[in-house]
Amino acid sequence: MELLFHIATDPSDIVVGVVLGQLEDKKPYAIYYISKNLTPTKLNCTVTKKEFLTIMHAINKFRHYITWYQVFVHANWCRVLHITILSQTDARVTQTHIHSMHLTQ
Question: Mind listing the pLDDT tens digit for each residue in 59-78?
């Protein structure tokens, strides 16, 4: 049985954090943690934009794990997003796909 990937995001005022994990037997297992300090320009963004930037950062960093797999993105500003990362997608294509899914929910 193929396990689904889950990405959980947590942006704050100065840093963003992300966890990549999977559920096995209804227990969460972390695979990878990342955090990143926000640039001075991004410090002035809204919380929603910071959350979106966090998701984009996670997809780019975890691409080698999640390519061709279903991924659930857990974010504070919207319902869980369900996406499938295709190989060789760039950030703009993924951004458009996530944005269009958010608008249709």
Answer: 888 888 888 888 888 877 65
Number of domains in the chain: 1
Return left, alpha or beta for 68; rule: phi > 0 is left, psi -120 to 50 is alpha, else beta.
Answer: left
The CATH number linked to 30 is: 3.10.20.370
pTM (2 d.p.): 0.69
Distance CA 65, CA 35 (A): 17
Domain extent, residue 94, equals 5-104
Strands (E), 1-105: 5-11, 15-24, 27-37, 70-74, 81-84
